[in-house]
Sequence to fold (489 residues):
Amino acid sequence: MAELGLSYKKDENFGEWYRQVLLRADMIGYTDISGCYIIRHWAMKIWENMKAFFEAETDEMEIESCTYPLFVTRDSLEREKNHIEGFAPEVAWVTEAGKSELKVPVAIRPTSEAIMYPDFSKRIRSHLDLPYKQNQWVNVVRWESNPTPFIRSKEFLWQEGHSAFATEEEADHEVQEMLELYRKIYEEYLAVPVVKGQKTELEKFAGALYTTSVEAFIPNAGRGIQGATSHCLGQNFAKMFDIKFENEMQEKAMVWQNSWAYTTRTIGVMVMVHGDDRGLVMPPKVATLQAIVIPVIYRDVDTEAILEACRKTVVTLKKAGFRVKADLSRTSTPGQKYWHWEMKGVPLRIEIGQRDLDKNQVRFVRRDNLEKVDIPLNNNLVERVKDTLDRIQQNMFDVARKKRDACIQVARTWDEFMEALNQKKMILAPWCDEMDVEEDVKKRTKGEGEMGAAKSLCTPFEQPELPEGTLCFASGKPARKWTYWGRTY
Fold:
């Protein structure tokens, strides 16, 4: 049984609150290597539930499963100059095996382009081999200097997809198709609102033609966070790794490539957005357990009848496909069990006591809003559980979206931008789309407070109207688009 209560408040010390929730909910464990965490069952099942959705979708898209090696040679990694420069500070190298120094050091993958694309060049020969679409579920190492569990760690899990096409149009279509899957993961499964958009040239994936992303925002921290990315790599890597095919006219051509990924960061974002001062709050669609059945046993009750009713309830709900269990332990009081399962964020608590047996009912207690309601047992328990979980899922998204939207501030001038930034807002501002101006924004905001510099989050695909004559908030030049800005993780 977890220790009751949290000693930190979400609104008062967000960082310590977050770490304490992860520990008290038994989601992670620490190791003696900073930034390397144990992902425990309670968090791992959330990842597996997302994976089940994603794999069903990618199977329909005829994307093949694979696993490539963990190691990559220096020659392969350095073949694309811009690519390696983007990762160089975080690459971990293996230089020894046992007591012997390796003649050729190998890197532990920070990403897999340099591992997979030499194989792509062997596998792809003809237009009949295209499209070629591969996905793997693996771990990645990036040597983070300031780690935060799930958000930025030295080792993390991710889904990593790579594809090759005959035409640019096919590649462009898949970029959007994958980005929509990531939106669904965040909004429809994790109940976290996101913005779909394109990264700036300064913030795009190193070596990509362009990068699209879904961007979330953490109101309590006042920080944006990149949720997932879908990149069009163009023909850049095809040229570097000689990935050619013979087209229908029997001419040699370079493929068009994409890569796309999301990580266990998703779990951290979920905790940050939905958690409260009682602990974790899990959306039903990804929850490790969707419902917990608790017997309410005190003196002078028919204990065995209550326990049997709990067991039958679990059997009924499991047969209907719900993730549910009963806490029948005798070492804790009902109140202690309530606190324990609230801390672990189970969406629905079903209480059964003597009063409930006498009235042929059960009590539902929702985790998202702590609402309590008595449910008559008239053969519609399954339907009532489904309806309640659906309403919890929708309410969690609605509440999160309302909080996120309250943090969005439009800024048309530098003074308005700085005021919003210091208020920890997600800022939508007209911009001239010039890289040197973006770099200047970073420099000018770097010394403002202890939260670090501001940067662009994305340029949303859904663009507000940009009246003629609108000027860039930072440069005063004619604005070309609306872009989201803020401090980030």
About this structure: The CA atoms of residues 73 and 106 lie 5 Å apart. The chain is about 35% helix and 25% strand.
